[in-house]
Design brief:
2 copies of one chain form a homodimer. Chain A has 2 helices and 3 strands; from the N terminus they run βαβαβ. By secondary structure, chain A is α+β, with helices and mostly antiparallel strands. The first copy, chain A, has one domain: 2-Layer Sandwich (Mth169, Chain: A). Chain A has a 3-stranded antiparallel beta sheet with strand order 2-1-3.
Chain lengths: 87, 87
Amino acid sequence: MRATIFVTLKADVLDPQGKAIQRAAASLGYRDVAQVRQGKLFEVTLDAPDRAAAERLLREMGEKLLSNPVIEDYRIDRIEDAKPTAR
Amino acid sequence: MRATIFVTLKADVLDPQGKAIQRAAASLGYRDVAQVRQGKLFEVTLDAPDRAAAERLLREMGEKLLSNPVIEDYRIDRIEDAKPTAR
């Protein structure tokens, strides 16, 4: 199965990287860009017997491995059935 | 308006960071995680007269500012009407 996990800074945490991107955009002429917040995404391919097991595994990964729960939130996006591909 | 832009490595580009996360997951006991690919996301708040103008601006930003089109793809996710918030 495949899923995407989004990790974003909590709303009250400053994001200097996003601010820098917003300024870079303004200096390139995109003055209508009011705010940019940067986050991470993880495309995860996993073997799981069913959707519930996949979601359980993804939640654990989101909490324990991929995000810092003090300053970040995570969100699991659409779990899709797909054979894992070797890479 | 608000939108999210996803920037991901093209499928044929190696992702050592994602590989490291997959190995870290395995060493934590998550052996069913077959593959992880890491990408970036940008939550953009912008002033635009309409959806078409917003999409045009977001496409330009995705191409020229936020992604490296040689190795990365970008995708614009759901443009929502929302007042820009000062920060």
